[in-house]
Protein backbone atom coordinates (compact mmCIF):
# COMPACT_ATOMS: atom_id res chain seq x y z
CA UNK A 1 0.00 0.00 0.00
CA UNK A 2 1.33 3.40 -0.95
CA UNK A 3 2.12 5.79 1.88
CA UNK A 4 -0.40 8.64 2.13
CA UNK A 5 -2.69 6.80 -0.29
CA UNK A 6 -5.71 8.81 0.82
CA UNK A 7 -3.98 12.17 1.18
CA UNK A 8 -4.70 14.80 -1.44
CA UNK A 9 -3.36 18.21 -2.30
CA UNK A 10 -6.84 19.74 -2.01
CA UNK A 11 -9.51 19.23 0.69
CA UNK A 12 -12.12 16.57 -0.02
CA UNK A 13 -15.66 16.44 1.40
CA UNK A 14 -16.87 13.29 3.14
CA UNK A 15 -19.73 11.37 1.52
CA UNK A 16 -22.76 9.88 3.28
CA UNK A 17 -26.14 8.43 2.39
CA UNK A 18 -29.47 9.07 4.14
CA UNK A 19 -32.54 6.88 3.72
CA UNK A 20 -36.22 7.89 3.85
CA UNK A 21 -38.26 4.74 4.44
CA UNK A 22 -42.02 5.13 3.99
CA UNK A 23 -44.61 2.69 5.29
CA UNK A 24 -48.40 2.83 5.59
CA UNK A 25 -50.10 1.73 8.79
CA UNK A 26 -53.19 2.53 10.84
CA UNK A 27 -54.47 4.73 8.04
CA UNK A 28 -51.41 7.00 7.87
CA UNK A 29 -48.21 7.34 5.89
CA UNK A 30 -45.29 6.69 8.23
CA UNK A 31 -41.54 7.19 8.14
CA UNK A 32 -38.80 5.25 9.92
CA UNK A 33 -36.47 7.30 12.14
CA UNK A 34 -33.53 6.49 14.39
CA UNK A 35 -32.46 8.24 17.58
CA UNK A 36 -28.80 9.13 17.45
CA UNK A 37 -26.55 7.55 20.04
CA UNK A 38 -23.50 9.71 19.27
CA UNK A 39 -22.64 13.35 18.81
CA UNK A 40 -23.41 15.51 17.00
CA UNK A 41 -27.12 15.69 17.83
CA UNK A 42 -26.92 12.86 20.35
CA UNK A 43 -30.45 11.97 21.48
CA UNK A 44 -32.06 13.65 18.46
CA UNK A 45 -34.16 11.81 15.89
CA UNK A 46 -32.75 11.47 12.39
CA UNK A 47 -33.04 9.52 9.17
CA UNK A 48 -31.03 6.28 9.00
CA UNK A 49 -27.73 6.81 7.25
CA UNK A 50 -23.98 7.11 7.54
CA UNK A 51 -20.60 7.41 5.88
CA UNK A 52 -19.70 5.57 2.70
CA UNK A 53 -16.85 3.07 2.83
CA UNK A 54 -14.03 3.29 0.30
CA UNK A 55 -14.98 -0.02 -1.35
CA UNK A 56 -18.73 0.50 -1.84
CA UNK A 57 -21.02 2.51 -4.09
CA UNK A 58 -23.75 4.82 -2.79
CA UNK A 59 -26.66 2.37 -3.00
CA UNK A 60 -24.65 -0.37 -1.28
CA UNK A 61 -23.87 2.11 1.47
CA UNK A 62 -27.57 2.98 1.79
CA UNK A 63 -28.54 -0.68 2.19
CA UNK A 64 -25.76 -1.38 4.68
CA UNK A 65 -26.44 1.66 6.86
CA UNK A 66 -30.17 0.97 6.94
CA UNK A 67 -29.65 -2.64 7.99
CA UNK A 68 -27.03 -1.73 10.61
CA UNK A 69 -29.17 0.96 12.23
CA UNK A 70 -32.68 -0.50 11.92
CA UNK A 71 -32.36 -4.19 11.01
CA UNK A 72 -34.30 -3.68 7.76
CA UNK A 73 -33.17 -5.17 4.46
CA UNK A 74 -34.56 -3.10 1.59
CA UNK A 75 -33.92 -4.10 -2.02
CA UNK A 76 -35.50 -1.33 -4.08
CA UNK A 77 -34.25 2.19 -3.42
CA UNK A 78 -34.85 5.25 -5.55
CA UNK A 79 -32.26 8.01 -5.50
CA UNK A 80 -33.74 11.29 -4.35
CA UNK A 81 -31.16 14.10 -4.41
CA UNK A 82 -27.64 15.10 -3.38
CA UNK A 83 -27.63 17.50 -0.42
CA UNK A 84 -24.47 19.60 -0.35
CA UNK A 85 -25.04 22.77 1.68
CA UNK A 86 -21.66 23.79 3.06
CA UNK A 87 -22.80 23.97 6.69
CA UNK A 88 -25.19 20.99 6.76
CA UNK A 89 -22.95 19.04 9.18
CA UNK A 90 -21.29 20.76 12.18
CA UNK A 91 -18.27 18.42 12.09
CA UNK A 92 -16.84 19.07 8.64
CA UNK A 93 -17.76 19.22 4.96
CA UNK A 94 -20.23 16.41 4.23
CA UNK A 95 -22.28 15.72 1.11
CA UNK A 96 -25.21 13.30 1.44
CA UNK A 97 -26.87 11.27 -1.30
CA UNK A 98 -30.46 10.63 -0.20
CA UNK A 99 -32.61 7.65 -1.15
CA UNK A 100 -36.19 6.69 -0.45
CA UNK A 101 -38.06 3.40 -0.43
CA UNK A 102 -41.59 2.07 0.13
CA UNK A 103 -42.13 -0.93 2.43
CA UNK A 104 -45.00 -2.84 4.00
CA UNK A 105 -45.08 -1.41 7.49
CA UNK A 106 -46.73 -4.44 9.12
CA UNK A 107 -43.99 -6.77 7.80
CA UNK A 108 -41.10 -4.69 9.15
CA UNK A 109 -39.55 -5.64 12.47
CA UNK A 110 -37.15 -2.85 13.34
CA UNK A 111 -34.32 -3.09 15.84
CA UNK A 112 -31.83 -0.31 16.55
CA UNK A 113 -28.14 -1.04 16.10
CA UNK A 114 -24.72 0.47 15.42
CA UNK A 115 -24.76 4.16 16.47
CA UNK A 116 -28.57 4.32 16.71
CA UNK A 117 -29.97 3.71 20.18
CA UNK A 118 -33.59 3.48 19.00
CA UNK A 119 -35.53 2.91 15.77
CA UNK A 120 -39.20 3.85 15.51
CA UNK A 121 -41.97 4.56 13.00
CA UNK A 122 -43.57 8.00 13.12
CA UNK A 123 -46.70 9.21 11.30
CA UNK A 124 -45.82 11.82 8.72
CA UNK A 125 -48.21 14.16 10.53
CA UNK A 126 -46.23 13.87 13.78
CA UNK A 127 -42.52 14.07 12.97
CA UNK A 128 -40.30 15.24 15.87
CA UNK A 129 -37.48 17.79 15.39
CA UNK A 130 -34.77 16.19 13.25
CA UNK A 131 -30.97 16.41 13.21
CA UNK A 132 -28.92 17.98 10.42
CA UNK A 133 -31.02 18.94 7.38
CA UNK A 134 -33.11 15.78 7.61
CA UNK A 135 -36.40 17.67 7.76
CA UNK A 136 -35.61 19.09 4.33
CA UNK A 137 -34.67 15.64 3.00
CA UNK A 138 -37.88 14.14 4.37
CA UNK A 139 -40.01 16.91 2.89
CA UNK A 140 -38.42 16.46 -0.53
CA UNK A 141 -39.06 12.70 -0.38
CA UNK A 142 -42.71 13.26 0.61
CA UNK A 143 -43.11 15.72 -2.27
CA UNK A 144 -41.53 13.23 -4.68
CA UNK A 145 -43.92 10.49 -3.54
CA UNK A 146 -46.86 12.88 -3.87
CA UNK A 147 -45.86 13.65 -7.45
CA UNK A 148 -45.25 9.98 -8.22
CA UNK A 149 -48.78 9.08 -7.06
CA UNK A 150 -50.15 11.14 -9.95
CA UNK A 151 -48.40 9.24 -12.72
CA UNK A 152 -47.33 5.86 -11.29
CA UNK A 153 -49.10 3.24 -9.13
CA UNK A 154 -47.76 3.21 -5.55
CA UNK A 155 -49.81 0.72 -3.55
CA UNK A 156 -48.17 -2.64 -4.14
CA UNK A 157 -45.19 -1.94 -1.87
CA UNK A 158 -47.24 -0.32 0.90
CA UNK A 159 -50.47 -2.33 1.23
CA UNK A 160 -50.99 -6.00 2.12
CA UNK A 161 -51.56 -8.37 -0.83
CA UNK A 162 -55.34 -8.08 -0.40
CA UNK A 163 -56.97 -4.84 0.70
CA UNK A 164 -60.21 -2.89 0.77
CA UNK A 165 -60.89 0.01 -1.56
CA UNK A 166 -61.07 2.23 1.53
CA UNK A 167 -57.51 1.20 2.46
CA UNK A 168 -56.25 2.22 -0.97
CA UNK A 169 -58.13 5.52 -0.81
CA UNK A 170 -56.73 6.31 2.65
CA UNK A 171 -53.24 5.62 1.33
CA UNK A 172 -53.69 8.10 -1.51
CA UNK A 173 -55.24 10.66 0.84
CA UNK A 174 -52.25 10.34 3.15
CA UNK A 175 -49.74 10.70 0.31
CA UNK A 176 -51.58 13.51 -1.50
CA UNK A 177 -52.54 15.28 1.75
CA UNK A 178 -56.14 15.81 0.68
CA UNK A 179 -59.59 14.26 1.01
CA UNK A 180 -60.78 12.26 -2.00
CA UNK A 181 -64.37 11.60 -3.00
CA UNK A 182 -65.09 7.94 -2.33
CA UNK A 183 -67.15 7.18 -5.44
CA UNK A 184 -64.93 9.18 -7.78
CA UNK A 185 -61.82 7.44 -6.42
CA UNK A 186 -63.37 4.00 -6.86
CA UNK A 187 -64.41 4.78 -10.42
CA UNK A 188 -60.97 6.02 -11.42
CA UNK A 189 -59.08 3.15 -9.82
CA UNK A 190 -61.34 0.48 -11.28
CA UNK A 191 -61.07 2.24 -14.64
CA UNK A 192 -57.30 1.80 -14.73
CA UNK A 193 -57.67 -1.98 -14.77
CA UNK A 194 -55.08 -2.23 -11.99
CA UNK A 195 -57.43 -3.96 -9.54
CA UNK A 196 -58.92 -7.43 -9.57
CA UNK A 197 -61.34 -8.94 -7.08
CA UNK A 198 -59.70 -11.02 -4.37
CA UNK A 199 -61.27 -14.23 -3.17
CA UNK A 200 -61.41 -12.90 0.38
CA UNK A 201 -64.77 -11.52 1.44
CA UNK A 202 -65.84 -10.46 4.91
CA UNK A 203 -68.97 -9.01 6.37
CA UNK A 204 -69.15 -5.71 8.19
CA UNK A 205 -71.05 -5.32 11.46
CA UNK A 206 -74.16 -4.25 9.57
CA UNK A 207 -74.12 -7.49 7.58
CA UNK A 208 -73.01 -5.94 4.29
CA UNK A 209 -70.31 -7.65 2.27
CA UNK A 210 -66.88 -6.02 2.25
CA UNK A 211 -65.07 -6.50 -1.04
CA UNK A 212 -61.32 -7.03 -1.14
CA UNK A 213 -58.99 -6.34 -4.06
CA UNK A 214 -55.48 -7.13 -5.16
CA UNK A 215 -53.27 -5.61 -7.83
CA UNK A 216 -52.99 -7.12 -11.29
CA UNK A 217 -49.20 -7.48 -11.35
CA UNK A 218 -48.91 -7.46 -15.15
CA UNK A 219 -50.81 -4.19 -15.46
CA UNK A 220 -49.07 -2.77 -12.40
CA UNK A 221 -45.70 -3.44 -14.02
CA UNK A 222 -46.93 -1.91 -17.29
CA UNK A 223 -48.11 1.32 -15.64
CA UNK A 224 -44.95 1.50 -13.54
CA UNK A 225 -42.93 1.55 -16.76
CA UNK A 226 -45.28 3.55 -19.01
CA UNK A 227 -47.06 5.72 -16.46
CA UNK A 228 -50.53 7.24 -16.42
CA UNK A 229 -52.08 10.50 -15.30
CA UNK A 230 -54.92 10.64 -12.80
CA UNK A 231 -56.18 13.98 -11.55
CA UNK A 232 -57.30 13.17 -8.03
CA UNK A 233 -58.45 16.51 -6.66
From TrEMBL:
Keywords: Hydrolase. GO terms for molecular function: hydrolase activity. PANTHER family: ADP-RIBOSE PYROPHOSPHATASE, SLR1690 PROTEIN. InterPro entries: Nudix_hydrolase (IPR020476), NUDIX_hydrolase-like_dom_sf (IPR015797), NUDIX_hydrolase_CS (IPR020084), NUDIX_hydrolase_dom (IPR000086), WH-like_DNA-bd_sf (IPR036388), WH_DNA-bd_sf (IPR036390), WHD_NrtR (IPR054105). Belongs to the Nudix hydrolase family. It comes from Odoribacter splanchnicus. Residues 14-146 form the Nudix hydrolase domain. This is NUDIX domain-containing protein. Gene3D superfamilies: Nucleoside Triphosphate Pyrophosphohydrolase (3.90.79.10), Winged helix-like DNA-binding domain superfamily/Winged helix DNA-binding domain (1.10.10.10). It comes from the Bacteria. The keyword Hydrolase applies.
Amino acid sequence: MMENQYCYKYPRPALTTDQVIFGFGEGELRVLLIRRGNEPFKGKWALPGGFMDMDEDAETCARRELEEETGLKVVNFEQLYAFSDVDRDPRYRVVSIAYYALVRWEDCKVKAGDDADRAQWFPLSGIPPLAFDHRRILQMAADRLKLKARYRPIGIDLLPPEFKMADLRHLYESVLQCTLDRDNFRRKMVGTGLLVDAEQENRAKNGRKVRYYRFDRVKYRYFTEKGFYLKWE
